[in-house]
Write a structure and sequence with these properties.
Helices cover about 45% and strands about 15% of the residues. Strands 1-2-3-4-5-6-7-8 form an 8-stranded parallel beta barrel, surrounded by 5 helices. Helix 1 packs parallel to helix 2. The protein is globular. The chain binds 2-phosphoglycolic acid.
């Protein structure tokens, strides 16, 4: 039985004061903490330690949005996995489509970042998903398969079960255009089949596959009801406590 995960990716939003206020609002709204659903919040780097302090006596987990492939050293402006671990982080997003698109992150680099995260006992949230032109060309399954092979399939079975996969069709991110539950389920089942082909059914059944792309309070129920959708990676709707809380409740249903 996979525990559903709802993760709020705040992206590059909020001042320090706003980040702490949102954390307080979420914690107040979550009490009593729901059973059967795991909640993670992923603030920008500068707020991680102060958010960590606020959530430390709660079941809410802390996530980061990226990490360096290197552990330490002269890499000005970078933040590494050992640093995140020491700051109280549990999850780290690897290969978000915005990192792929605006920062040229792909293939071998994302495999290195995944390894760096796991080496520091962080749990990678590895993102995959196709741009609109690729879906229109009916090449979305091929592309997602390639993204998984390049970024994850070098891992041994005991490591892949620590990874959370997030399927985020690029055409659905921040656009208000959500994949239909049928489109999400079709791709999630495909991803699980790739995992089963590579690692066997028993391993594939343990890996959580989140959907991301314009998840909101209105569509969360139907998306999370899909057999292979194990929760959501939520962007815009995670910036408003009331809406994020409704999404968390949808995952607990
Ligand atoms: P969105 O972003 O919910 O605003 O579409 C999701 C994501 O990019 O993780």
């Amino acid at each position: 039985m996979r525990t559903k995960l709802v993760a709020g990716n705040w992206k590059m939003n909020k001042t320090a004061a706003e980040a702490l206020q949102l954390t307080d609002e979420l914690l107040n709204g979550l009490r009593p903490f729901p059973a059967g659903v795991e909640v993670a919040i992923m603030p920008p780097f500068p707020y991680l330690m102060s958010v960590a302090e606020k959530i430390k006596t709660t079941p809410v987990k802390l996530g980061a949005q990226n990490c360096s492939e290197h552990p330490w050293g002269a890499y000005t402006g970078e933040v590494s996995a050992p640093m995140l671990k020491s700051a109280g982080v549990t999850y780290v997003i690897i290969g978000h489509s915005e990192r792929r698109q605006y920062f040229g992150e792909e293939g071998a680099l994302l495999a290195q970042k995944t390894d760096a995260a796991l080496a520091s006992q962080l749990l990678p949230v590895f993102c995959c998903g196709e741009p609109l032109v690729v879906r229109e060309d009916n090449r979305h399954f091929d592309l997602v398969k390639m993204q998984l092979e390049e970024g994850l399939f070098h891992l041994p079975p005991e490591a892949i079960t620590k990874v959370v996969i997030a399927y985020e069709p690029v055409w659905a991110i921040g656009t208000g255009k959500t994949a239909t539950p049928a489109q999400a389920q079709e791709m999630h089942a495909f991803i699980r089949r790739q995992l089963a082909d590579k690692y066997g059914n028993q391993v594939a059944e343990q890996v959580r596959i989140l959907y991301g792309g314009s998840v909101n309070a209105a569509n969360a129920n139907s998306l999370f009801a899909c057999a292979d959708v194990d929760g959501g990676l939520v962007g815009g709707a995670s910036l408003k406590a009331a809406e994020f809380l409704q999404i968390v409740r949808a995952a607990g249903n």
